[in-house]
Amino acid sequence: MATTRHSQAMFFQARAGEKVRDKVLQRALQKAKPLFSGKRGQAMVALADDGMDFETLRTACEEIRNRVLNDLDVWLALFEERAKANGAEVLWARDGDDICDLVIDVARRHGVSKVAKSKSMLSEEAHLNDALSAAGIRPVETDLGEYIIQLAGETPSHIIAPAVHKTIEQIEELFAKEHGRPIEQRTSEDIPAMTREARAVLREHFLTADMGISGANFLIAETGTASLVTNEGNGRMVTTLPKVHVVITGIEKVVPTLEDFATLMRMLPRSATGQTISNYVSLLTGTKRPGDSDGPEKTVFILVDNGRASLLGSAYQDMLRCIRCSACMNHCPVYFSLGGHAYGWVYPGPMGSVLTPLYTGIANALDLPHASTGCNQCGSVCPVKIPLPKLMHRLREDQNEMGLRPWSERLGLKAWAWVAGKPRLYRWLVRRAIGYLHWLADDKGRIQVLGMAPGWTVGRDLVAPQGKSFHEQYAARKRASK
Amino acid sequence: MRVALYVTCLVDLMRPSVGFASLRLLEAAGCEVIVPEGQTCCGQPAWSSGNRPLAIDLAKKAIGELEGYDYVVIPSGSCAEHVRNVYPQILADDPEWGARASALAARCHELTSFLADVAKLAEMPAEFAGSVTYHDSCKGLRGLGIKRQPRELLLKVRGLKLQEMRECEECCGFGGAFSVKYGEVSTRIVDRKCDAIASAGADAVVGGDLGCLMNIEGRLRRRGDETTRVLHVAEVLAGEEES
User: Fold this and answer.
1) Residues of B numbered 67-126 whose beta carbons fall under 8 angstroms of chain A's beta carbons: which are they?
2) N or C end of chain A: smaller count of CB under 10 Å?
3) pLDDT tens digits for A435-463?
4) How many domains are contained in chain A?
């Protein structure tokens, strides 16, 4: 698979350590965490106050997504037919390389030298910006976060807040350097000024780009429409100003009707940013018609598989319900300890821990399904009821069945389970273990370094056992009372 | 009613007082308590590692030991969740064992939910002079819906003041093998929990799962907090044992 070579997920363990120790990153994450979960929480309270029930609504959203996935070919065919009837071209991409080839081909056909991009995670899957640059076409990211990331030469660390790992000081430094001005001391009150600065730069690009590339939050089959949910307005510029508009999105993003779209939209912004609705919701149907004041002359849809079809009918089909709201990572204790880059591929957090192994190979992302405490904070906020911990667990099972777990772990578990099946031997070993732990403990009864589980004592003491085991004491009491 | 007490492997090894406290509470609720011999571990570590065959072996062993009682009570949300939710699931394909697993699951309860909702224990045998803050462990909270029960019982302890911490439903970072495999990440998570505990300013942090409590206590002590007590809810509800 073409994407595999870009994945760094096999370095999770080492990167996680680096990220935990990165004080600047930790400061940025600490600041962002309450914003995300707090705003979503408030939105859900308000939802209940408005007489809507979260569970009922997310069950409805789950059903819409399941209805699509159970007949995905049918809904895609309908979408293609309606989109073509509106004058759009519909292309199909098998993988990331296909995406790049198709986009470059469209660009060449229309003499494009500069592309203005609205946020698209699919283009991250394809590493489209690199391919465009190599083909002599300049890609300009116009989402503020993506713009920052592009200037910094990095990848997004969050699916809707790509620069969440950066502090205001880092961004100021970057803007000063890239916009050719001296560095200023910035506070959060200066954020509007910094945004205006980026806006002035980006405005020029919107007006001079020959092609706009966007993703789509949903494709609406009955009307052949792409919907775009944004807050900055850049999406509108990208999709209406340049003469060519290319929409790149996954084949699973289709929904049957506008009515279904409206239902999903009750959940998407609330789950993502805690907004009842995002600042902009665009429904883009076809090309500019005679008499229209704006719109592209050419609309191209690139509908991407890149591993998605292989999940249909599998134990992982539920994952395709994902509407990319980011609630799972926003409520993940692991994500907020590391940020997104530690996960090593396009998608971080719980949804990434499921998607990365499935899209880039189970053997290439062995840590990710284990990098979860199993707390199920993700599963309980998911607006389409994806059982994320169950899917991560299923991947752990697959690793075992494929013989991908380390021999030491397999042997250790086997020996432990064998002993646990023999109570007398087990009691004897527990007695030995208690003795050993007491021998290791200091005079406060704490163990500072535990050789057999160094991960525990890296940041914690182990408080030594109280004394004799429960079962030993209980047996003695029973004997005494007889 | 005849109640089987399954103390869990961690309580057996690390903190037997939780087992004896559970025993006293069940007796105070009028139960005839039996501690089935031969109990070791419910098999959750095998299951979390993704090793289904080993998890099934240990599930069958536990089912054999725990059948035939009116109720089975476990002083741990995560072990009770494993018996209630996972046993029926992993044995679903086996008609005989599947039925036995479901029958056991229906009789199996986490300690505080059993005391509050089934046995309806009205008076706590204990007194507690001081304030406590309650940490909701994930599997009990999100797997079994345990939230109200421990608080309801704690508030019946004479002298006890409940002082909620912020984000009491946030994971402490334990996660079983996770805490050892990804020790630094786990430490980062429990650090946030310790911050929340510190700002609640209670005399003790209380929870229903020994794994989480070992994690929290270990980090508090490493951070130099020698005063905040870390207690299992059973220990608080039952009070000190008279010797």
Assistant:
1) none
2) C
3) 999 999 999 999 999 998 999 999 999 99
4) 2
